[in-house]
Design goal:
The complex is a heterodimer of chains A (179) and B (175). By secondary structure, chain A is mainly alpha-helical. The longest helix of chain A is centred in the first third of the chain and has 24 residues. Chain A contains 9 helices and no strands. Chain B has 175 residues and is mainly α. Classes of the chains: A mainly alpha (179), B mainly alpha (175). Chains A and B meet through helix 2, helix 3, helix 6 and helix 9 of A and helix 1, helix 2 and helix 3 of B.
C-alpha cells in the first residue's frame, strides 16, 4: 500500500487504527534496525521504537508532506535514538570501564546477540565513533541509503556526509587491522 | 550499478576489510514474534493515553480551569490595563476636585481630556512599568492599588496547593 493511501486512512478517524497498523507493518523493521544499530541492546531498541511510534501517532496530523513519509519517520526515529543515548550517558555513573569494554559486556549479556568474534570486534570499533558519525556509517553501510536520502533525514549536506562516512570507515578499518 | 555494489566499490579504496565484511550475516537477532507483540504494546499504550486524555475527572477539570483562569489574570498586560484605567479615573477625579491652577505643566495637562490620556496610555502601554503605574495611581497614598501583591500571595498559596497534585509532565504540557 502506498504512503498516500496510508496517510488518507490515518486522516479518517474511523480508519486511523488500521492505517497506523499498515504504517507500522511497512516501516517497523527498517526503523527497528536503524534504532538497534544505534542503541545496540534489544530491550533499549524496543523502548525507543515504541516511543517513536507513539510520537508518530500523536503528531501524524502535523505531517505536512514536505518530505517523504519514510524521511519523516527516520528523522523521528533518529532523534529518539540520539535522545536516548544522551540521557543514558547522563544517567550512567562514573565507571572504570571504558566504552568498548562496557559495550562488549553488554553484547555478551544480550540474549539477542549471537557471539561472533568478527562481529564483536566490528561493534567495538563502531562504539569508538562519535554518535553522529556512527549514525552516518550505519545508514550508508548497513541500510544502504544514498547520500541524498541521508541528507534529507539528517538535514546535513551531501559533502559533509561523504566526509563523515569516509572518516568513520577509515577509523573502523584501522581498528580492525590493529587490534 | 546497484547500491550494494556502489558501497562496496567505495570501500575498496578506503576500507577493504570492511568491504569484505559487508555481506556477513549480522549477529543481532530479535525475539520470536517480536514485531507482532511490539504492535500490540504500542496500541495498548495508545489506548491508555487516549482514555486518560478523554475523561478528566471533575476535580482535574476544575483544577485545570482554575490554573488557566489564574494564568490569564496574572498576565502582566491585563493588570497593566486595569491599573492604567484606574490611573486615568483617579487623575480625572483629582483634577476635577482641585480645579484649575496656575502653573505651566498643570495648566497644560488640565487641557487634555480623559479620553486623550486614556488613548495615550493604551497606545503606549508597553512603555509603562507596572510598579510606576500603580505608584502614580495611588495619589492619596492610601494603597488602593495593591491588588497585584494580594493576588500574588493568594496565587502562590493556591498554586502550591494544587501543583502538589500534579505530575511534572502534566504541568509541562500545560505551560
Amino acid at each position: 500500500m502506498s504512503d498516500e493511501q496510508i496517510l488518507d486512512m490515518l486522516a479518517d478517524q474511523h480508519r486511523a487504527e488500521n492505517g497506523f497498523r499498515l504504517l507500522m507493518n511497512k516501516y517497523q523493521e527498517r526503523l527497528y534496525w536503524h534504532i538497534r544499530r544505534m542503541v545496540v541492546d534489544h530491550d533499549d531498541a524496543n523502548d525507543v521504537l515504541q516511543n517513536c511510534f507513539l510520537k508518530v501517532f500523536k503528531s501524524i496530523s502535523r505531517f505536512q508532506g514536505k518530505s517523504a513519509l519514510y524521511t519523516w519517520l527516520y528523522r523521528i526515529a533518529t532523534n529518539e535514538a540520539i535522545t536516548f543515548l544522551n540521557k543514558k550517558k547522563k544517567r550512567s555513573t562514573a565507571s572504570f570501564d571504558n566504552e568498548e569494554n562496557t559495550l562488549e559486556n553488554k553484547l555478551l549479556a544480550d540474549p539477542y546477540f549471537d557471539e561472533n568474534e568478527v562481529q564483536l570486534k566490528l561493534q567495538k570499533a563502531m562504539a569508538s565513533l562519535p554518535d553522529k558519525q556512527r549514525l552516518v556509517f550505519n545508514m550508508r553501510y548497513y541500510e544502504e541509503m544514498s547520500y541524498n536520502q541521508m541528507s534529507e533525514v539528517l538535514e546535513t549536506s551531501v559533502g559533509a556526509l561523504k566526509a563523515s562516512y569516509h572518516h568513520a570507515a577509515k577509523k573502523i578499518e584501522h581498528y580492525l587491522k590493529n587490534t | 550499478m546497484n547500491r550494494n555494489k556502489e558501497i562496496k566499490k567505495e570501500l575498496e579504496e578506503i576500507a577493504p576489510m570492511l568491504g569484505k565484511l559487508k555481506d556477513e550475516k549480522s549477529s543481532f537477532r530479535v525475539p520470536e514474534n517480536y514485531f507482532q507483540d511490539m504492535q500490540e504494546d504500542v496500541f495498548s499504550k495508545l489506548n491508555t493515553v487516549v482514555e486518560e486524555e478523554k475523561v478528566p475527572s471533575f476535580w482535574e477539570k476544575f483544577i485545570i480551569d482554575s490554573i488557566a483562569t489564574l494564568q490569564l489574570l496574572l498576565q502582566p498586560k491585563p493588570i497593566l490595563r486595569l491599573a492604567a484605567v484606574a490611573l486615568v479615573i483617579t487623575a480625572g477625579v483629582y483634577i476635577f476636585q482641585k480645579g484649575p491652577q496656575a502653573g505651566g505643566q498643570q495648566e497644560y495637562l488640565a487641557d487634555i481630556s480623559s479620553e486623550e490620556v486614556m488613548e495615550y496610555v493604551n497606545d503606549n502601554i508597553d512603555d509603562f512599568e507596572l510598579a510606576d503605574v500603580v505608584e502614580a495611581a495611588d495619589i492619596n497614598g492610601e494603597g488602593l492599588y495593591s491588588v497585584p501583591e494580594i493576588e500574588d500571595e493568594i496565587s502562590d498559596e493556591y498554586l502550591d496547593e494544587i501543583i502538589d497534585d500534579f505530575e511534572i509532565e502534566e504541568l509541562e504540557e500545560m505551560l
